[in-house]
Amino acid sequence: MSSHAPRRSRRWRRTALALISGGVLATALLQPTSPATADDPLPYQDPSLPTAQRVADLLGRMSLAEKIGQMTQAERIDVDADTSLITDNYLGSVLSGGGSVPDPNTPEAWADMVDRYQEAALATPLGIPLLYGVDSVHGHGNLQGATVFPHNIGLGATRDPALVEKIGHITAEETRATGPQWAFAPCICVARDDRWGRTYESYGETPQLVESMETSIDGLQGKPGQLDRSDHVLASAKHFAGDGLTSYDESAAGTGAYPIDQGIDRVSRAEFARLALAPYVPAVKKHHVGTVMPSFSSTDFNGGDTDDAVKMHANQELITGWLKEQQGFEGFVISDWRAIRQLPGTYAEQVEASVNAGVDMFMEPIQAPNNPDGWDVFIPTLTQLVEDGDVSMDRIDDAVSRILTAKFELGLFEHPLTDRTHLDQVGSKAHHQVARRAASESQVLLRNQQRTLPLKSHQDVYVAGSNADNIGNQAGGWTLTWQGGSTNVIPGTTILDGIEQAAHGKVVYSEDASARIPRGSAGVVVVGETPYAEGFGDVGGPQWAYDPGDNGVPRPEQTMQLSDADTQAVKTVCARTVSCTVLVVSGRPMIIPPGLLNQIDALVASWLPGSEGAGVADVLYGRRPFTGKLPVTWPRSVAQEPINIGDKHYHPLYRYGFGLSTRR
Ligand code: GLC
User: Fold this and answer.
1) Which residues form the Glycoside hydrolase family 3 N-terminal domain (predicted)?
2) Which of 78, 337, 483 to mutate to test the pocket of ligand 1 (most atoms within 8 A of CB)?
3) DSSP letter string, 253-313
4) 142 and 255 part of one domain
């Protein structure tokens, strides 16, 4: 994005923009709007002109309806059966929510779907192309066949910014080749309380670690000026700000509400600036992130009752004042999923507050078909607010200019349809090799008595545990479906597959350790969590998932404790093997009781390694050394949460940054 221009020249740019738009507006009013011809394009259709000039020219030609349409994002389900809705409402964007995929869910079908929606957008009088957004948060996870990488918490453990940039680039390539030009990633949240269901979407508990991983933005977007390439997408720094700073609400636990996700940041302004705002400075100034998504959460800098809490989606001081004016953010702000409906007041008051706070585009999917309650209400509501003077035309023009700028810089006016050059790279061997390396580098060795690890390949090995042979569990949330799932199957290898490939001795697998354990075997027990997303992952959060794949069957409550089955498997295996290694496949630390820990010879934090469990086996067998470092503090008990490096009383089981190495 062009936000790298120094402040002074930005002012000149704005002046120029005003002059141009005035001049162009006068010209447009004076001259008949003769249809463009290929060899005589209108200014906005002329790629040789500066983006600011093209934006000004196009803005001058747009009606209020066309402008508000650009500020509106629908979900694919709303328009898939009738794409004329895109044309007739001048919609500027469509998204896939988690798990909202074409049928069949293939690279070609994705590209065909996005192009079909694009054709509808191009059929509007001004032919403004559509932006398609998707949660490519660990690869293009919605797409069957995409390369699925470790989630951010594992990437934070790698301490490898160059690798994270490479993963961002591969993610962009596989995303754009299948149609979407925009990824709602990366989450630059700083996770402070591991009871939060989105801890795994965070690179870690310190802003410094999170900032070092913002190379993912460079991987996704490329360098300024490269957004129009077929291997780059617009990125979205989220969720602005303080999504990982919310405090746990004990009264909400077990009630079906979210005890911590989307909660309130009860911190001082200084603490908020240090932990929540800090990562957005380099995201804007150094990495030129194209969009920012506000958080569902609120801030309450005064402490005490929640009446002072201000929802981020209505926080004009932070969105407009701090992000846009102070930091010079020139991209656009996209609201989160129907998030403005959490604001106080009527829907009109919610729209007015969020638009005037500085939100530019509105993710307003229709939840109940045939029941106007999404973007179909947003458009007339905002139109009325403008007509009544409650939202200024300047605010509308600012929002639309930002959105159009992104579309011009993505090259969508010149190349609106999917460039399928890299389609055959989706899920390629080369991409999976990077995923395997990332899985290896994300492993953190916490305990290694008598140098249990690396295992000897000639050893017989006995493998048990709920997560040893479950690629759905090792991939986690935002995979094929919103919540992810234990029955999800994606291309790749499980940890058991990796062990079977690496071991030359006999391998026995028994998930519950009920099978006989051959004498002399080394034991490996892979324990951990089942997939979840957002508040459904909160400790004490709701057990039910809206994900149709779950058919409404309640899933295990997330507790940060090992399941009884996993605990028993550890006890059984560790009692009867010559060595006992436990791997924890989870989105956050899990509690290892002292009585269990002293039965374990080697303990590894595996996080959510993604599609290449073989990468975990690579470090187990010494093909790669253990190099990972804890991205978050590992507590002794849930009662210690939140616990973070720098706390006055800090006695974790393993401290932030800890990790043993087996490097020779
Ligand atoms: C969700 C998430 C956000 C995601 C968006 C679109 O509610 O909060 O991270 O990008 O909806 O799926």
Assistant:
1) 64-405
2) 337
3) TTTTS-SSTT-EE-S-HHHHIIIIITTHHHHHHTS--SEEEE-S-EE-TT-SSGGG-EEGG
4) yes
